[in-house]
Amino acid sequence: MSSMAPANSPRNQRSATSYYTRHQEARQQYQRNYNSVKRLGRRKIGQREHAVEESMRRRERTGQRGRYTTAWAHRQHNVDAARTLTMEIEEGDLSTRLVDMENSAMEGHGDNWLPVFLDAVNALIREVEAVACEAVNQHNTDEGDAAKRQEQLHGIRRILAGLHQSKEFAEQGFQAGGAAAEDKAWIWQGRSVNRTKFYSVYRW
């Protein structure tokens, strides 16, 4: 007499349910991994760019690449067309200064370097905010070259946003800034400022 139970027997039903339960989490994890790699948003991108982004996502999943978020830069890969050569040079000098400040904080304070670095960046932000306040007031009252004043304000906007972004990446860990640099997501690399975020803070 066969020991095989009928397909619809209670024993087989329990077995099928147990198998489904055991493998449900594995299937869900696979789907999450697949989504994180394949679903790259609604932006239309070329085949080569799509492959590069897929590779980056896979490296993030395996810990070979850091993750980051930034509220201060434009989410898309937009280069700021209004960025002048003067802005580029000033931002490059400031970026070098920030690296020196970070290294100094690490050398002087070891594992407690981050609050020291953030305090130093906040001090820079306050200095630039004072310059910005004067420039905005002048822009609102001066009858001089409007285009020149607008360019000046945009340069200040980029510096302020870049300083805030430097804090963002420092707080997210060492790998965040490197991953952002790979994506050319740093404002210092020419990425456009997220004006919605900027306006929500500075109102100009």
UniProtKB/TrEMBL annotation:
Q: What is this protein called?
A: Uncharacterized protein
